[in-house]
What does this fold into?
Amino acid sequence: MDQRPWWREPLLIAHLIPPDAEAMAQRDMAALAKTTADLGFNAVHYVAEDVSEGSSGIFFFNTSAAGEVRADLLGPYCREAHARGLRVIVYFNVHWLGAPLTSRHPDWAQRSAGGEPVPTAYGVGHYACVNSPWRDWSFQVIRDLAAYDIEGVFLDGPFFAQGACYCDACRAGFEAAVPRFGDRSDPAWGPFVNFRFESIARYLRDARDTLKSVKPQAILYMNGAGLEATWMLARDNRRLVEFQDLLGAEGGFLYHDLRRTPLWKASATAKLLETQAGGRPTVVFIDAHHAPWSRYFLSAPELRLLHFSALANGANTWYGVYESLADEAAATTAREVNALVRRHADVYRESESAANIALLWSGSTMCVYAAEDSDPGAAGDPMRGSFTDAFHGWYEVLLRSHLPFDVLDEPALTPERLARLELVILPNCGCLPAPAVEALRRWVSNGGSLIATYTTSLYEPNGERRADFALADVFGVQFAGRFIGPLPHDHLPVDPEHLLFQGIGQPFIPAPSQGVAVQATTARPVVHFLEPQRSRYQELPPQSPHPAILLNRFGEGKVLYLAGAFDAAYHLFSLPEHQALLANATRRLADPILTLLGAPESVEVSLRRQPAQSRLLVHLVNYTGEMTRPLRRVLAARDLRIGLRRVPRVRRATGLVHRQELGWHRADEGIAITLPFLGEYEVVVVDL
It folds into this structure.
């Protein structure tokens, strides 16, 4: 008999944001549970406290920690929810304190180095410090919650704000002179950063132990880190995951000008969470609203695509919407998605990636480079470039090439994980730690393929420049001691006979604005930088002695090193020649295990497998809109052909969304499947 815990089944989690305290007391628990169930959710984050302007101390369940218990609504709600098949996970705000609490307990607030409470992003209130006496108060709340018939607790937070914390408790706990925030020249800065990380980890560990001491079967998880520099808020999923039953992050919260936000934000978040979760379920939090306008909905296509891109990459979904707006048409888009997942729960249950390519999210590089991006006065090389631009550039190239890929972080570079891959891409991963360097060196030597760009491995994890690339022998180059550029209007010659430039019809392409001077040792240069161009209109200068692109063999493996920030250039300018160069490089070093013909480039492909069911899953997410965001509608594609290499036989191929049997035939060392129609999303289920 299957003894799988309920939280390992596909989770469709609702978060209905309540009104203020006065209106909360008047709510009908049966109606609230019915609304949630009617929208197709199977779990709920139930809010049992007033958080309209931060935690006020007003609760709607019995707890000795309350400033006031207005009514016990949690008990009745649990009964109504369970009667409708809903799992109840109580939302507990552990980061934002309202004025009623901080006026009584000023020592609970996070403080700046000057001793003032750190301003919040919400306009009012203060942030709670996990080292203050607030922690004991919060644990009492958790104990009292565990006395109810709930399935778990979700912690919204905790984190440290930037510039915090210098409260008395933190100063005492650090046991040394605290440094100026962000001063990496101070020897105490590194230990202070670690103190912040450890403080959050201790809090989460103790919160888990508190909950499970009363209700061992209850689950606990928090609002974790997505694609961000973890030191800024002191949330490091790798340090925190062992104290959680699920791993989640706000990959579906969209803000301000969406034209500046990648369409695949939820997708990338889901990929990273899967890497960091250690086999635990993951969840992408999706806000129905277009922030900062909390009552203004995202368009229906935007909302559905957030759900689909999370599901396509193995994540569960959480959907936040105001209770008062839950019946609006834009909010009910979740009903369509929930119905699909419920109808095909077996397809969304415990699959794993089948990709043979991985893109590295270098947390160590992000922490150093993002610190300098946010502080122009920070020490460091002004030419070291942007890690995030490079990462997003590669992400888009792989997506537009319809290549399935994973997102790994440095701890995931283990022999077991690397053994499943043919190619790893390092996008300006300047600050690689020694264990990651050694893992990649061994893997390439044993036959793996590697693409690396610009400053990859040129710096220590603390940001200090190394004398040479840590991967110099793997790249087949040595650092010549200087950077090239800026190159604001420079060109790069094209070798029309080389496979890397296939499909590029111009003799020159824009050079990346930044390069690093290298000398080839064992690598073979493909093209060189030109000497710097003094003005836009001068004759092109002669070739420089510094290669821009090099190929190397290292042991049994193949390596492509790009000495310029080509990936960041593609992210910034979207030039098709840069895209073609990077796509050609990828296909040269890893045989595509899947091809997609007849589809626009803006269709994301995720290839997953369910070994127990002898099944492959091809998820297709169609981001094709009408040249602006928010997307108003998605343009359908027709008559697509999906090629799956290394698949010798198929029993059946089915289109899940449109419930259709799909034709297939043997082709190209595998099979070809015909998909007549693709709207916003499809899952092609291939039973082997």
